[in-house]
Amino acid sequence: MKICLRYLGDPGYQQGIRQELGVSQATVCRTVDRVVNSIVAQSNEWIKFSTTNHELMEAKRIWQSMYKSPTAIGVIDCTHIGILKPTRHGDEYIN
Question: Can you tell which superkingdom this protein's organism belongs to (predicted)?
Fold first, then answer.
């Protein structure tokens, strides 16, 4: 799993990851392939998107009321999204 997370975090050359983690390039390739395929196989169970206008509006309402983010409809765990810091209280926004 660590190999796959390292690759997905910085999808450069597998050779560099191989050297960094002390495994063969084939191991990097196989590990990434197996982990990603396993995630994709479960994606219908784990990943849900709003499909109707009503669901989208409800998701926006919830995100606005809970997090003061008026256009968000959901998030992906562990994903950092670059945002422009506001002019007021900008030091509170760190990505």
Answer: Eukaryota
